[in-house]
Design a protein that fits this description.
It contains four helices and seven strands, in the order E-E-E-H-E-E-H-E-H-E-H. The protein is α/β, with parallel strands linked by helices. Helix 1 runs parallel beside helix 2.
Length: 129
């Protein structure tokens, strides 16, 4: 699976230039995105602007992958979702468990806020539990 990668200081922006994400692409997607957890810069912004639809298996894999990132203290924010894809995920009751923003800029903000929050928690600041 081809992806476009834009590396920033605190995260990577990954754009999937496919109109459809199908079930047979999910293992490759998981391996490709999951490999970022091994990097020094672990957090991801997944830009889905070109994606018009996906299989339920692919959507569930994204949810699981996003959860894996958060378990490893890394952010995983999905942005720029097409309305039809957003509606599909809402119908499947998956949209509410995903960290989704309308724009890439907002996704960057969330990643940076979560990074600050992790740093504060690591420093043992009271009141952040």
């Amino acid at each position: 699976m081809q992806v476009k990668i834009d590396t920033k200081e605190k995260f990577h922006v990954i754009t999937i230039p496919e109109a459809q994400i199908t079930a047979n692409m999910t293992d490759e997607l998981e391996a490709s995105l999951g490999s970022y957890l091994q990097n020094d810069v672990k957090s991801l912004v997944l830009n889905l602007a070109p994606v018009e639809g996906m299989d339920i298996a692919a959507a569930e894999k994204l949810v699981n992958l996003q959860q894996r990132f958060y378990e490893k203290n890394a952010s995983f924010v999905i942005c720029c979702m097409q309305p039809a894809l957003e509606n599909f995920l809402a119908e499947q009751e998956l949209l509410d468990v995903m960290n989704v923003t309308p724009t890439e800029s907002e996704a960057w903000d969330i990643v940076q806020m979560e990074e600050i929050e992790r740093e504060l928690l690591d420093d043992g600041e009271p009141g952040f539990e």
